[in-house]
Amino acid sequence: MHCPFCRHADSRVIDSRSTEDGAAIRRRRTCPACGRRFTTQETVLLMVGKRSGVTEPFSREKVIAGVRRACQGRPVTEDALAKLGQRVEESIRATGAAEIPAHEVGLAILGPLRELDEVAYLRFASVYRSFETLADFEAEIERLRKERAPAPGD
């Protein structure tokens, strides 16, 4: 790590700490040449593998944009979308994998989106799972009803 003050090619780590969300590490460093101290923040780059074979960096903004389209006209706030995006990213990072298939990103979105808004969930699932007939929608709606219905004796 180059010193930002004197451009010396080496620095020594004094302290390392994980950030609040665990997505990065903050390191306090010192330069042996000029003696000045500075802080760096290191993040692990999470890659998404697409069906076409292309890989690209994970983008929380892309997740939020896709969910925003499904939530169009629904009573969902930007704050709720941001929280959903954070939950999705945290669940993906928790797998510990450096590269994750795009399909897994979609699966990570479905759970939190269903909790947020069932209509938006159906919209997203219909595209994500490629619903082709009315029967596909009916089966998904029936599954949602069964999950929501209280068990006998509750």
UniProtKB/TrEMBL annotation:
Keywords of this entry: ATP-binding, DNA-binding, Metal-binding, Nucleotide-binding, Repressor, Transcription, Transcription regulation, Zinc, Zinc-finger
All residue ranges annotated as the ATP-cone domain in the record: 46-136
unnamed zinc finger span: 3-34
Cofactor-binding details, from the entry: Binds 1 zinc ion.
GO molecular function terms listed in the Swiss-Prot or TrEMBL record: ATP binding; DNA binding; zinc ion binding
Pfam family, one: ATP-cone
Any one GO biological process: negative regulation of DNA-templated transcription
Cofactors demanded by this protein: Zn(2+)
Superkingdom assignment: Bacteria
Described function: Negatively regulates transcription of bacterial ribonucleotide reductase nrd genes and operons by binding to NrdR-boxes.
NCBIfam families: transcriptional regulator NrdR
Family classification: Belongs to the NrdR family.
Protein name per the record: Transcriptional repressor NrdR
